[in-house]
Amino acid sequence: MAQALELTVGERTVRLSNPDKVYFPRLGITKYDVARYYLSVADGILRALRDRPTTLERYPDGVEGESFFQKRAPKNLPEWIPTGRIAFPSGRYADEICPTEPAAVLWAANLGCLTFHPWPVRRSDTDHPDELRIDLDPQPGTGYPDAVRAALELRAVLDQLGLTGWPKTSGGRGLHVFVPTSPWWTFVQVRRAAIAVARELERRMPERVTTAWWKEERGAKVFVDYNQTARDRTIASAYSLRPRPHAPVSAPLLWDELADAVPEDFDLRTMPARYAERGDVHAPMDERPCGLDAALELAAKDERDHGLGDLPYPPEHPKMKGEPKRVQPSRARRPSGESG
Questions:
Q1: Which of 198, 194, 196 lies closest to 218, judged by CA?
Q2: Has residue 309 got a pLDDT over 80?
């Protein structure tokens, strides 16, 4: 195996150990290939990560080896990579890395980080998100084309509420739509707005879209995962590699590309050429923050006129005020004393 390399990234020199280590065996993609990929999209991924507390999804022995999520900054963190302190639902805290320059991405890639999971906040204010993130997750019996149909209708919902969405592939079968917001609202308020958006989309596409938290109730529909806006839930960043055999990328798209693009178009080998030709198509995103007032008004109307209050939180969250029971419906209907 080749000796370590030193890569120059801006004003930094980043050491890349074992550059010939194979990370994606099916394609023979090495750690060096991964590093070169992140160099090719450096400004784009930095735009997605800048100043955001970021969890690292690490595969030190490649996608066929063991993996883990690293939330707390490693002890060997260089002094030039800042951290941000975030609070988990449990009340515990952690200091996560907050990339401010492309070299931080390369430094993490050297640790085997393939996917970057940034929080929807900046390190200067970790209690007020500046992104509302919508995850369109196709359920069994549906696929990417169904997510596209839902996303196109979602765009109309967002427009009605004065919101601008920026779509990207998940790197799998789904789609993510990010809405930049001013950091004035809490996690609870942003999640409430996301639920209102999801319910309106469900009303418009009842046969194709669901907000049902319990899998047994979703059917063959696209699930709008509103809980991706809950505290401590993150979504893979734009330009992140995904740990699948063909090295797919979570690819930012423009709305007029959505109908024709397919996830297989975007991977470690194809994205550099696209980026060289078109640059970061989401570059203007942060210049256009939106307000959530209309979405929160819709949430209040749903509750007032239709009795639609909160929805269940993820299991690791403490019980929230107004939240319905976290009981799987089939278990809730089971007669008292009956065991499963």
A1: 198
A2: yes
